């Protein structure tokens, strides 16, 4: 299922890129309105969308829906229900290191440290 959605996602994204590159922007008629010729669509409403704009909207919607589905499937497959229950447990490799460190003799921890205030440490 994941691989099929990934293939469809690739096709939708390539189609979306192609449709966006094919379309002519609203600013393309700007020169005609200031020079020779009159263009009422530059600053006015463009009316209903044509086939390219509608198909771009459909592909963009599919792109976002498939993105959400792929994100949901990828997180669902990597995090199982048992992993949520085992979050408090320490991994085996960490347990071995902790046990090895606790069996070693501590090095001179019984020495007394002199307590000095920060004011005494400042040189005059």
TrEMBL record:
<keyword id="KW-0811">Translocation</keyword>
<keyword id="KW-0812">Transmembrane</keyword>
<comment type="function">
    <text>Involved in protein export. Participates in an early event of protein translocation.</text>
</comment>
<feature type="transmembrane region" description="Helical">
    <location>
        <begin position="51"/>
        <end position="71"/>
    </location>
</feature>
<protein>
    <recommendedName>
        <fullName>Protein-export membrane protein SecG</fullName>
    </recommendedName>
</protein>
<feature type="compositionally biased region" description="Low complexity">
    <location>
        <begin position="100"/>
        <end position="110"/>
    </location>
</feature>
<keyword id="KW-0653">Protein transport</keyword>
<dbReference type="Pfam" id="PF03840">
    <property type="entry name" value="SecG"/>
</dbReference>
<feature type="region of interest" description="Disordered">
    <location>
        <begin position="81"/>
        <end position="124"/>
    </location>
</feature>
<dbReference type="InterPro" id="IPR004692">
    <property type="entry name" value="SecG"/>
</dbReference>
<keyword id="KW-1133">Transmembrane helix</keyword>
<keyword id="KW-0813">Transport</keyword>
<keyword id="KW-1003">Cell membrane</keyword>
<comment type="similarity">
    <text>Belongs to the SecG family.</text>
</comment>
<keyword id="KW-0472">Membrane</keyword>
């Amino acid at each position: 299922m994941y691989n099929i959605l990934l293939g469809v996602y690739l096709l939708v994204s390539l189609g979306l890129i192609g449709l966006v590159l094919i379309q002519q922007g609203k600013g393309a008629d700007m020169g005609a309105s200031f020079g020779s010729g009159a263009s009422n669509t530059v600053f006015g409403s463009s009316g209903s969308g044509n086939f390219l704009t509608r198909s771009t909207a459909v592909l963009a919607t599919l792109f976002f829906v498939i993105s959400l589905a792929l994100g949901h499937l990828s997180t669902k497959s990597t995090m199982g229900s048992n992993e949520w229950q085992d979050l408090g447990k320490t991994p085996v490799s960490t347990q071995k290191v902790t046990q090895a460190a606790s069996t070693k003799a501590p090095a001179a921890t019984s020495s007394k440290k002199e307590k000095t205030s920060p004011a005494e440490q400042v040189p005059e």
